[in-house]
């Protein structure tokens, strides 16, 4: 298990004149060798050492919802991965709140329906995988029966 030296860092978003910040995880203050979250999803630059707990948190975070400046942003991501708490203070100061509002207007909206449909899609894929595995086991069992091959009970469980 890698020793965790990560911390939350931030850089001003230049195209907004510093009205918003981009948060990320890194061992050093720069974006090289960093892990972040943005409108296109996971942002991995270089190499980053993370623990198994953090890997699980990354999976949970990205499966929850797409990027949203107000509800599911880069600061939420960094704090959740490192501390287990999806916290963001980007809307608490007037000028950062303005920057977040501008970004929110430019980004596509994610609705509750989209979240529900994404969850249904994940469940469908999982069930399809389970059914394919069951079918493969049945085919193996039938093949072994046809060719009089003895199987251990746990081999088809």
Provide an overview of this structure.
The chain has 2 domains: about 5-110, no CATH class; about 115-155, no CATH class. About 45% of the residues lie in helices and about 15% in strands. A 4-stranded antiparallel β-sheet has the order 1-2-3-4, covered by helices on one side. Helix 1 (about 50-65) runs antiparallel to helix 2 (about 75-85). The protein is an alpha+beta fold. The radius of gyration is 22 Å and the shape is elongated. It has 4 helices and 4 strands; from the N terminus they run E-E-E-E-H-H-H-H.
Key features?
157 residues; alpha+beta; 2 domains; 4 helices; 4 strands
Describe the sheet with the most strands.
Answer: 4 strands, antiparallel
Q: Low-confidence segments, ≥5 residues, pLDDT <50?
A: none
Terminus-to-terminus distance: 33 Å
Provide the number of structural domains: 2
Number of alpha- plus pi-helical segments? 4
Q: What is the structural class?
A: alpha+beta
Strand order of the largest sheet: 1-2-3-4
The Cα radius of gyration reads: 22 Å
User: Per DSSP, what share of the residues sits in E-state strands of 2 or more residues?
Assistant: 5-15%
Percent helix among the residues?
A: 40-55%
The whole-number mean of residue pLDDT values reads 80
Number of strands: 4
**What string gives the helices and strands in order?**
EEEEHHHH
Shape: elongated
């Amino acid at each position: 298990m890698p020793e965790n030296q990560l911390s939350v860092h931030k850089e001003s978003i230049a195209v907004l004149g510093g009205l918003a910040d981009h948060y990320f995880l890194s061992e050093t203050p720069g974006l090289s060798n960093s892990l972040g979250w943005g409108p296109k999803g996971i942002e991995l630059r270089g190499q980053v050492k993370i623990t198994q707990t953090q890997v699980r948190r990354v999976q949970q975070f990205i499966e929850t919802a797409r990027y949203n400046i107000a509800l599911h942003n880069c600061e939420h991501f960094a704090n959740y991965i490192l501390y287990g708490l999806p916290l963001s203070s980007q809307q608490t100061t007037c000028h950062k709140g303005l920057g977040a509002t501008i970004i929110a207007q430019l980004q596509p909206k994610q609705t509750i329906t989209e979240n529900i449909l994404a969850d249904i899609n994940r469940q469908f894929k999982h069930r399809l995988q389970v059914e394919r595995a069951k079918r493969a086991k049945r085919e193996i069992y039938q093949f072994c029966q046809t060719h009089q091959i003895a199987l251990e009970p746990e081999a088809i469980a």
